Amino acid sequence: MKIIVTHQDAMKFEAKTAKSSFIIDCPTISPIEYFLSGVITCSATDLILIPKNQGKTVTDLVVEGEVVRAEPHPAKFETLHLTYNFNSDGDDTTAARWVMASLETYCSTINTIRDTTAISYSITHNGKLIRENEKMISGQGTKIEMGEIESCPS
């Protein structure tokens, strides 16, 4: 994977990937906010694609991420809490497994920061809180076999 960032003017930069490009407008949205958005979107795509692979559908998906950063600079993420809220035609146990498959196996951005960031999550499925402040085990991740899934190219 290769990305080229080019200064445009003031605090605007263009990021070019092999497939597209976009403008990073600092300080309107900071690079760390783009980074956190990418982390969250990585997991959100899994929450659409893993169920789809199993013949299930997820709707009304909202994933919130809240970070506490260290002081002083480089102000790395100390903690990340992800809150998943979605509806589906799967049962609660299956819905929780989808989230865990994303966190433990499929989401490369979360797995990139997991050795240095304490990650926790909560899940509301079909209007019911099914997991609250669960802690993700830091380290190398675990293999949760959910089969092959379609994914966003990395």
What does this structure look like?
Helix 1 packs across helix 2 (92-106). The chain is of the alpha+beta class. It has a domain at 31-135: K homology (KH) domain (GMP Synthetase, Chain A, domain 3), CATH 3.30.300.20. The protein is 29% helix and 36% strand. The strands form 2 sheets. A 4-stranded mixed β-sheet has the order 4-5-6-7, with helices on one face. Strands 1-2-3 form a 3-stranded antiparallel β-sheet, with no helix packed on it. Strand 2 (12-16) and strand 3 (21-25) form a beta hairpin. It is globular and about 50 Å long. The chain has helices at 31-53, 92-106, 108-113, and strands at residues 4-9, 12-16, 21-25, 58-69, 77-88, 118-125, 128-135. The mean pLDDT is 91.
Give a quick rundown of the structure.
The chain is α+β, with helices and mostly antiparallel strands.
The percentage helix is 25-40%
**The named CATH superfamily of the domain at 31-135:** K homology (KH) domain
H/E element order:
EEEHEEHHEE
How many angstroms separate the termini? 7 Å
| Structural class category | alpha+beta
The number of helices is: 3
What's the shape? globular
CATH class wording of the domain at 31-135: Alpha Beta
What is the number of E strands? 7
Mean pLDDT: 91
Spatial order of the strands forming the largest sheet = 4-5-6-7
Based on CA atoms alone, the radius of gyration comes out at 17 Å
